[in-house]
Design a protein that fits this description.
Layout: E1 2-14, E2 24-41, E3 45-50, E4 53-58, H1 71-83, E5 89-96, H2 106-119, H3 127-138, H4 148-155, E6 158-162, E7 167-169, E8 177-182, H5 189-202, H6 204-227, H7 230-246, H8 252-260, E9 267-271, E10 278-283, H9 288-296, E11 300-304, E12 312-315
Parallel strand pairs: 3-5
Antiparallel strand pairs: 1-2, 1-12, 2-5, 2-6, 3-4, 6-7, 8-10, 8-11, 9-10
Helix pairs in contact: 1-2, 1-3, 2-3, 2-4, 3-4, 5-6, 6-7
The structure holds (3R)-3-hydroxy-3-methyl-5-(phosphonooxy)pentanoic acid.
Length: about 325
């Protein structure tokens, strides 16, 4: 039997970086997916095939010996084989509809889809149980993950999350289109987070006043999402981008991408850690084409809607 599960990508609508120092951020699952297909084999190996490469590792080897892109998958496979006292090996295939390493939550989506796919080979698990397995797996590569990305990938929709670990799924599903464009620059979240700490330590007053402004901005954004007020939301994205530029996490390429969609979209900003990665531009049916066209000549880009399903599972 093959077990198939998929989980969506995520973007950060508002609040990246400032969330590290308190306040809230707003995350959103989008309708681009990672799919994981798994099956038991008669070998003693765990075999993985994905767009990022291939791995064959004896199932008795420590997951720590696997390259970081495969480590969470090996961890999940071993955990499940051990828990259910299985003598089988495992074959895992990963395919993705969106790029990795650019702040779209590919590692979290992969952990959630893998946890869903592999755990179902043995017995049915609730989404809550699968989320726990996925977060444990992601901790093998990001020790301090808040779990917010995995939560967005598991439940879908829009999430409000705060530094103290509170994660709340919002009931609202605004009718919006997002254009996601990839700068092609792979970024390191931890490096950019350190850059921001440096900024904060050097200019504490400026940083704390920006944090206060961001808290207010997020309250306004939650209100605009509730009212499906895209004009207001777009303006808030532009403002959020200005704050991110002030703390030094944007760069010339991201700024020029954003200026390309200035007139076509309701507003745009970088998403995630910055210093590379992706930008998001807000649109609806009326200006989606124009917004995509403004970016498509120079950058990999795609349109996305909010995903409300989160983890999806099936067996074949
Ligand atoms: O680029 P991403 O998806 O890894 O987003 C990082 C978000 C930060 O706020 C910069 C860091 C964090 O842990 O919240």
């Amino acid at each position: 039997m093959k077990s198939v599960a998929s989980a969506p990508a995520k973007i950060i609508l508002f609040g990246e970086h400032f969330i590290v120092y308190g306040g809230k951020a707003i995350l959103c699952a989008i309708d681009k997916r990672i799919t994981v297909e798994s099956e038991m084999t008669k070998t003693n190996n765990i075999e993985i095939e994905s767009g990022l490469g291939k791995l064959v590792i004896p199932k008795s080897d420590s997951y720590k010996n696997a390259d970081s892109v495969f480590r969470p998958l090996v961890y999940i496979a071993q955990k499940m084989l051990e828990k259910f006292h299985s003598k089988a090996g495992m074959r895992i295939r990963v395919s993705s509809e969106f790029p990795s390493g650019v702040g779209l939550g590919s590692s979290s989506a992969c952990c959630v889809a893998a946890a869903g796919s592999i755990s179902s080979l043995f017995e049915n698990h609730t989404k809550e149980e699968i989320l726990k397995i996925a977060i444990d797996a992601e901790r093998t590569i990001f020790e301090n993950t808040s779990g917010a990305d995995c939560t967005a990938c598991t439940y879908g929709g829009i999430l409000e999350y705060s530094k103290d670990g509170q994660i709340k799924k919002l009931e609202i599903v605004p009718k919006l289109e997002l254009v996601v464009a990839n700068s092609g620059i792979i970024h390191s979240t931890s490096k950019v987070v350190s850059m921001v700490k440096h900024f904060k330590d050097g200019k504490p007053e400026i940083f704390s006043s920006l944090c206060i402004l961001e808290v207010n901005l997020i309250e306004d954004a939650l209100d605009a999402l509730q009212k499906n007020d895209l004009v207001k939301l777009g303006k808030l994205m532009i403002q959020n981008q200005e704050f991110l530029e002030k703390i030094g996490v944007s760069n010339d390429i991201l700024n020029s991408m954003i200026s390309l969609v200035k007139d076509a979209s309701y507003g745009a900003k970088l998403t995630g850690a910055g210093d590379g990665g992706c930008i998001i531009a807000l649109a609806d049916k009326s200006n989606l084409k124009k917004t995509l066209n403004a970016l498509a000549k120079k950058y990999e880009c795609f349109s996305a809607k909010i995903d409300t399903n989160g983890l999806e599972q099936s067996s074949a």
